[in-house]
C-alpha cells in the first residue's frame, strides 16, 4: 500500500479513503474491548499522524506541526472518536443482552479486588467520553436504544 498511499498523482482524498479502507480496519481490530488510557490515546494519535505524514511525504525531521499536517491533508483527528463510537455501540449491545458479558463488562463480579492500583474499566472510559456523569446513568441509558444512539451521536459531534 506504500506506493498507493505516497503517490502524488492520486488525490489526497482518494489516498485518505484507501487508508480508511485498508489500514484502519487492521489497526482497529478488536478495539471494542480496549480500555484506552491517556498513554494509549497518545500512541494512537501519534500513529494517525504518522500515517498522514507518510502519505504527504513529510519527513519526521521536518519542522511541521501536527496542525499544519492536518490542514494539508484536509482532515481532522478521527481515529479516537471512531474507536470510542465502536466501543459505545458494542457496549450498548452487550448491556441489552444481560448475560455473562454484561457482568464482565461492568466489572461487577464477586470476589476480592487485587492489590494496588485498580485497572481502568471500559465503562469508565465511555462515561467520561459520553459525559454521562456516573457509570450507572450510562448503563441505564443503554436500555433505551434511541436514547443511547443520541448520546453516542452527541459525543461524536463534540469530538474527543
Number of strands: 0
> How many helices does DSSP assign?
9
Rg result: 19 Å
Characterize the biggest β-sheet: none
- Which stretches are low in confidence, meaning pLDDT under 50 for 5 or more residues running? none
The helix/strand order is HHHHHHHHH
- Morphology call: elongated
What does this structure look like?
- The protein has helices at residues 2-5, 12-27, 38-56, 66-72, 79-97, 100-106, 122-130, 135-143, 145-158.
- 65% of the residues lie in helices and 0% in strands.
- The two termini are 29 Å apart.
- The radius of gyration is 19 Å and the shape is elongated.
- It has nine helices and no strands.
- With 160 residues, it is mainly α.
Short structural summary:
This protein is an all-alpha fold.
Keywords:
single chain; mainly alpha; endonuclease; 9 helices; 160 residues; hydrolase; 65% helix
Give me the secondary-structure topology.
Blueprint: H1 2-5, H2 12-27, H3 38-56, H4 66-72, H5 79-97, H6 100-106, H7 122-130, H8 135-143, H9 145-158
Helix pairs in contact: 2-3, 3-4, 5-7, 5-9
Amino acid at each position: 500500500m506504500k506506493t498507493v498511499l505516497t503517490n502524488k498523482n492520486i488525490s489526497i482524498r482518494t489516498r485518505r479513503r484507501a487508508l480508511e479502507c485498508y489500514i484502519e480496519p487492521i489497526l482497529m481490530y478488536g478495539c471494542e474491548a480496549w480500555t484506552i488510557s491517556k498513554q494509549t490515546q497518545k500512541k494512537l494519535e501519534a500513529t494517525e499522524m504518522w500515517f498522514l505524514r507518510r502519505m504527504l511525504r513529510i519527513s519526521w525531521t521536518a519542522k511541521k506541526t501536527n496542525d499544519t499536517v492536518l490542514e494539508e491533508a484536509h482532515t481532522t483527528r478521527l481515529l479516537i472518536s471512531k474507536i470510542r463510537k465502536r466501543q459505545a455501540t458494542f457496549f450498548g449491545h452487550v448491556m441489552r443482552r444481560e448475560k455473562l458479558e454484561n457482568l464482565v463488562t461492568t466489572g461487577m463480579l464477586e470476589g476480592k479486588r487485587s492489590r494496588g492500583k485498580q485497572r481502568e474499566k471500559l465503562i469508565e472510559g465511555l462515561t467520561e467520553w459520553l459525559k454521562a456523569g456516573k457509570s450507572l446513568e450510562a448503563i441505564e441509558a443503554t436500555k433505551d436504544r434511541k436514547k443511547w444512539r443520541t448520546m453516542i451521536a452527541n459525543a461524536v459531534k463534540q469530538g474527543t
